[in-house]
Amino acid sequence: MTEAPALGDPTLDADHAKLADLVDRLAAAKGADVLASLDALQAHASEHFALEDQELRQMRDGNASCHLDEHAAVLKSMDEVRGIVAAGPDSTESAHLVARLTAELRRWLPEHVTAMDAGVAHTRTRSRLGGAPVVLTRRSSPPG
Ligand SMILES: [Fe+2]
Ligand SMILES: [Fe+2]
């Protein structure tokens, strides 16, 4: 199961949850569904990264170019895997590449959200409300 930690920005959180869901769907896909799932993941990732990229280009943060590079690298990997899957959907190589891509995205997404997208969430909230995002978490046990 792919994890996408909440940042307190409704748009980014919804986008990340959908991204995580699409990675899980691709990981579970069989036969012709593999290419369709990959396309759905790629389309959503492109759209989501474009939204963040637009904000990153306006930020004067030193991390912005690293962040833009990561998005581009992820899209490039998806594109490469898509090319091979489209050419031979039933090949062992396709299955192997899709498994590697989903494993890599499951590792990457929570790390990227925490390390990089948190900065975008912070900037978005600051410009909208004038404060840092508030993330509500349920207490594991009542205060004693
Ligand atoms: Fe993101
Ligand atoms: Fe990002």
How is the topology of this model organized?
Blueprint: H1 10-28, H2 33-58, H3 64-87, H4 92-129
Helix pairs in contact: 1-2, 1-4, 2-3, 2-4, 3-4
Bound molecules: fe (ii) ion (FE2) (2 copies).
One fe (ii) ion (FE2) binds near residues 52, 67, 112, 116 and 117.
Integer count of domains:
1
CATH topology: Four Helix Bundle (Hemerythrin (Met), subunit A)
**What distance separates the N and C termini?**
33 Å
Helical proportion? over 70%
> How would you spell out the order of helices and strands?
HHHH
Under CATH, the homologous superfamily reads Hemerythrin-like
Structural account:
74% of the residues lie in helices and 0% in strands. The two termini are 33 Å apart. It is mainly alpha-helical and 144 residues long. α3 (64-87) runs antiparallel to α4 (92-129). The chain has helices at residues 10-28, 33-58, 64-87, 92-129. It has one domain (10-129): Hemerythrin-like (Four Helix Bundle (Hemerythrin (Met), subunit A), Up-down Bundle).
What's the short version?
The chain has 4 helices and no strands. It has helices at residues 10-28, 33-58, 64-87, 92-129. Helix 2 (33-58) runs antiparallel to helix 3 and helix 2 (33-58) packs parallel to helix 4.
